[in-house]
Structure formats: C-alpha cells, structure tokens
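If your schedule permits, I should be very grateful for your opinion on a structural question. I have a record of one protein: its chain in single-letter code and its fold written as discrete structure tokens. Kindly check, if you would, that the fold set down in the tokens agrees with what the sequence suggests. I remain grateful for any guidance, and I place the record below:

***
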Amino acid sequence: MNCWQRLATSALLSLVASTLPGHATPAEAPNIATRVGGDYLVSAIDHVDNGEFRIQFAAVAPSGKFDTLTLHSNHVHVAVKIGQKLRLSAEILSTKGTAAEVAQMVIFVANPQGPVPVWLLSNRAGPRDLKATKYLEMHSPLTDYIVM
C-alpha cells in the first residue's frame, strides 16, 4: 500500500472514529452536516424506477437513532451484498423516526490488506457545499485515485 492509500485510509478511519462515541454527531449550524458511523448490515438492495437502486443498511447495534439508513443511487458497488456487515460513515440527508436517508457515505470493504474505502453518492442529494465532510475537505475523489 503506498503512502497516499495509507493517508486516505487513515483519514477515513478517523472520520468514522469521530462519529462512533455518540453514534451520531448533531448538526451545530446549517452548513454542518449530521454524520453517523458504525457497523451496519446490508438489509436490502432494490431496483426501482429509472435505473435507480435503493440500498438499505440496518444497524448491528440499534440505538433508536439512525437504525436504518437508505441510499438511493444509480448503481450498486460490486462488493456490496445483502447480509454483508460493513463499517460505514454517512452524511444524513433527511430523517424519519429511527430511519434516515443519506446524501453520501463511505463504506469500508474488507480486504486481506486492510479495509478499502468506497465512496457512495445519493441521486437525491442536489449540489451543495460539502465542506462539512472532513474527508472531502482533504481530498478530491475525482482526482485522488486512478481506477485501472
């Protein structure tokens, strides 16, 4: 693993660790996003209209807040399977009871060489200022990695 991969993994793990103690970080100002992190199971992957997928995640240890996360995306990453346990960090778009819809999330896919961060975006989140997400302040996902 090269130094850039180690730096990115370290930054993402720090982001997840910062959200774990309270299971969610409350928004302090309108420009600050609410984030949640922890261990979740992939509970459903549904293909809905217009080539959109709905991916649902259920908390391994439900706390009564953000127990179910839903991501609407135009694709499903090949490593995401129903029943799979993943560590994730997500930015909340909207909430309804104990469920929430996410604007974006970073999932950590198991790999023999260490967890691999995968960034997933929602189709439902419009363009906005993403400075609230520490990962995005440090990295530009479109230019940091070359997919071969």
The helical segments are 3-19, 134-138, 141-144. The beta strands are 24-25, 35-48, 52-59, 68-73, 85-96, 99-109, 116-121. Residues 3-26+33-142 form a domain with the OB fold (Dihydrolipoamide Acetyltransferase, E2P) fold (CATH 2.40.50).
